[in-house]
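From the shared-data thread, chain only:
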Amino acid sequence: MSNDERPPASASREADARELFPLDQMSPDEYAARHAHQWDCFSFDDYRYSDPMLDAWIQRLGDILFRRPGAPSLDDLRLRYLTREERGAIEPFS
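Structure, as tokens:
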């Protein structure tokens, strides 16, 4: 969905996104590597956020989670960001 097609996020959704996602501590790539297995559904990327940095971060995460063209695979990201032990701990949930 293009930027123009996504409705603006409500103030509460934007606040939830800021609380949930560690924008200043972790890239969306690393977040996906570490936490994708914890998301059964994800709709944050259906909305447009007033902060361009937040919007880009969430869109990148959505691209990864939904395996959109050009996004890296979770397997590649997990190899890059996680130790063997960390990968082993999340394998049963992937």
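The chain has five helices and no strands.
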